[in-house]
Model the fold of this input.
Amino acid sequence: MPANYDNAVEYYDATRGYREGVVERYRDALFAFTGGDASARILELGIGSGLIARAFQPAAQRYVGIDYSLGMMRLIAGKLDGGFSPLLAQADARYLPFSAGCFDLVHAARVFHHLQDWRECINEARRLLRRGGALVIAENIAPADAARPPWAIVQDKWDEILSGLGVQDDGADHGIWLTDDAMRQYMESTGAQVDAVDLLRYLEKAVSPRIMVERRAAGMFSSDWSLPAALHQEAARALQDWLARDCQAPDEMVEREMLFRALTARW
Done:
């Protein structure tokens, strides 16, 4: 079963949102790479709160979004202008309520690393695409030449603390990343022509180590949702103690350069 982001409704946009103009650049790069335009029939897997979808108004008039979280999708209305009104459906990406061949473009941004059953999701997207249509799976990835921000040490410390408490990983049931060859190999095994592209580079919003610790302590990361409450609280106390004692420049606000990297499949 997919993670239900109803838990994140109150803080998702504030903690996962993009700088002004980034999602519009994503939209333009997506259209340029796939040859799509305003007439395309588009499906977004994991539309969430509409952070990406809002950039498609009014560029796409046949836009459909699915998500497992009704709470997240209720946030979309406040982002829409004019006549743009995407069709929304609460659905599991493995079992979608649409007819075969009804979309020109299926895309998912920052979704597949959450999906254990990603092969089934790819198969379902393939079913929904018209012949020659494109599936685009995009993730946020730090460029190899980008400097690691100071706040990234918070993740390292969190993993260390959890390991010391007997947790073998960070508590999550992970899906797959674009860096895994398995995704490309699987799509090629189904007969797809697969291409990789870096759609755009951009700067994330600035954060500090203290902000990242606060988010961890508040349980704002889906990778922590499966942790028992008592264990999470103990780990959070240890992380806060580390911040107070040993973290250098805990309030330094630093931006990180990221890129949208995508795999595109056509059958």
Observations:
- The longest helix spans residues 229-245.
